[in-house]
Amino acid sequence: MFEVPDVSHPDAFEKGFPHELFRELRREAPVYWHEGDYQGGRGYWIVSRYEAIKSISRQPLLFSSASGISVEDREENFVSMIALDPPDHRRYRSLVSSGFTPKQIAAQEPHHREIVRSILDAVVDQGHCDFVVDIAAELPLRVIAELLGVPQSACHDIFDWSNRMIGSQDPEVVVGLEEAVGAAQEMFLFANTLAEDRLKAPQDDLMSAILHGEVDGQRLNTTEFDSFFLLLAVAGNETTRNLISHGLLLLIEHPEAQARLREDPSLLHGAVEEMLRFSSPVMYMRRTALEDTELDGQRIRRGDKLLLFYPSANRDEALFDEPDVFDIERKNNHHLAFGNGEHFCLGTALARLETRVMFEGILARMDDLELAGPISRLRSNLIDGIKHIPLKFSRSGA
Ligand code: HEM
Question: pTM for the complete prediction?
Fold first, then answer.
């Protein structure tokens, strides 16, 4: 049997997602028990095949999210819908889901285009930039701040807090978990001050919808509100930033695909799906078995943790022809980058729109895209993140 490293450890992803290892796992041991985790826990199942990941995601009462969605057993002092099971989960999700329908999101396209224009205006004449900080991070940040009802002047606080939370395993970002908890507390304090205003005078934003909405006839308490705010602020921000960053690297690595998109920007819809499949910025979500059960011939015991590795599902040769080929015109691209089932990403339409509009702007206004130095990756076991991409380019068009 081949050696399987501890993929709960952030260092396992130092060079990016280990696709070779996962190809072997899918073939030899699609549901594999890893004894122990990097924090001294009992261990976890690595689930690597598409069908198994989809099937687990569709059985939330057998494979629960309520004990946590990352491998670590953290003592959480907040409740968030991403870590709730039915029926509670649905009640919380329904407070905000109407703000994320494809129709609601599509109406924002002209506005996204304006934001992209102003982001690119600030860099196109320079000929170089840090693509992640100057471009990729900006659009998701400004959009989620607006949707929530956070003043634009506070956008960079959100950037900083969510970096510190997501980057709790990365020494460049923070020194440890305490710092991440501190960032969450700062965010809560900020959110609660804004909430006082919105309680008195509701506006047309998500924060007001959360505060004035009711779950089982009751308004959310402060802890529930804080958790909601944090989830939306972080989930709507880090993930799309990384998709845009990976998308840029993919277009630099695949000049023929980039040229096709410049000729025919309508291909961007499919290209964004392929960027999602190929890069899968969320590496896994965890479930916990609530009963003894069986999966692909393995006996799963009640209480066992299962890690659903989306980048592996998205390269599963049982589903995708030539899965390691980046093909912007791929047909039937039913990837699992947004998960599936009960917790299927709330922000799919938003992330897709942001990414497409961003690349429309980039391809229209920037030529000769080239790396100007090494990229630096986020040290994380959860998010396939990129912190910096030094980029050179020339200005094109208007
Ligand atoms: C490329 C961008 C994105 C990716 C790859 C992504 C990925 C995911 C995944 C894999 C899940 C499933 C979690 C699970 O099954 O346990 C999820 C859930 C979620 N995502 Fe996203 N996401 C992205 C963008 C966004 C955006 C822009 C928002 C905006 C607010 C968002 C909000 C959420 C929320 C609230 C959930 C929890 C849904 C629930 O529990 O019902 N995501 N996302």
Answer: 0.96
